């Protein structure tokens, strides 16, 4: 029997819609409290409280917030240096328990770079020994260790001869390059950088940021980039999460955050950046005043309410949840997520200010 014919033209294949990179790290309602003793009383510090975070493969997520808001604790929870009390941490689709050791494969895939490039290195060990140490612990064969040490030193812009030097023979920028090399030696997928450029001069900062950018592409890395410096985070991050007193209060693409911050705390943080241009100083009116309350005794409801110029009755009674108010833009504030009157978000910045670069590190 002949095949039935049809008048319908075959449809052209539709081009695939661009797909988002896979989620590498996901935090769901992650919390951490530390027990402390004040005088004879036992108290607890709520360092991280119900944090949600999504980090896509190959991207950089910046974490910003004032000193003591929980950035480093969050970093330590992610890499497993301290166990989380509640919530779920998922890495490459695998839920990581808060008890017991993490599987070696996961430990190797997450590395951390700390703020102080000097204290992170053993002063009595050569640079080569410092980089080789974690490789030895992971059972990498000796011949391969030597090769990897040379490769990562070259990749971070240092001659392989630096392997025989000691930390005190290097500048601050060079030492931070070594710390980055040590993190890379294990071929991680995720690198958590906790104030990794904060101790460096501005010009060296810019070089290390450029280096991190290059390495991200060359190694296919994903970064969680923690800093109290909003300029640095703006320059380096795709997405930004703003923390206040242990909670994430706003998260969105970096461009949105700096052009159109929605949370009163973010608006205040951006208004607090010192401005050289007198025409931009008018925005200083929105600066945040006062100190962050103690995490020993956080305010009820919205934790920012004691410093918020828009606080109202509901803010003391009910903690706002982090909710998507625009595509990809999530905010925890009753002004944006409830029946309360939304505030007009000021446009605080017109153009990002890239960090400057001049001399060699
Ligand atoms: N091991 C600990 N024991 C008790 N309290 C702790 C411990 N670690 C952190 N904290 C407290 O948890 C809160 C968050 O600290 P954390 O170091 O995470 O903040 P941070 O945002 O990294 O601050 P900074 O910008 O100064 O580095 C602080 O009040 C801190 O004192
Ligand atoms: S919930 Fe209330 S106190 Fe908190 S940021 Fe919004 S307006 Fe301010
Ligand atoms: Mg810290």
Describe what you observe in this structure.
The structure is a single chain. With 361 residues, the protein is of the alpha/beta class. It has 2 domains: 205 residues, Rossmann fold (3-Layer(aba) Sandwich); 71 residues, no CATH class. It contains 11 helices and 12 strands. Helix 4 crosses helix 5. The N and C termini lie far apart (79 Å). Magnesium ion binds next to helix 1. The site of iron/sulfur cluster has 12 residues, from helix 11.
Superfamily (CATH H level) name of the largest domain = P-loop containing nucleotide triphosphate hydrolases
CATH topology of the largest domain: Rossmann fold
CATH class of the largest domain: Alpha Beta
Radius of gyration: 23 Å
**Bound heterogens, unique:** adenosine-5'-triphosphate, iron/sulfur cluster, magnesium ion
Number of strands: 12
* Residue runs with pLDDT of under 50 for 5 or more positions: 1-8, 345-354, 356-361
Number of individual domains: 2
**What is the chain-wise order of helices and strands?**
EEEHEEHEHHHEHEHEEHHHEEH
What separation lies between the terminal Cα atoms?
A: 79 Å
Largest sheet: 8 strands, mixed
Strand order of the largest sheet: 6-7-8-3-9-10-12-11
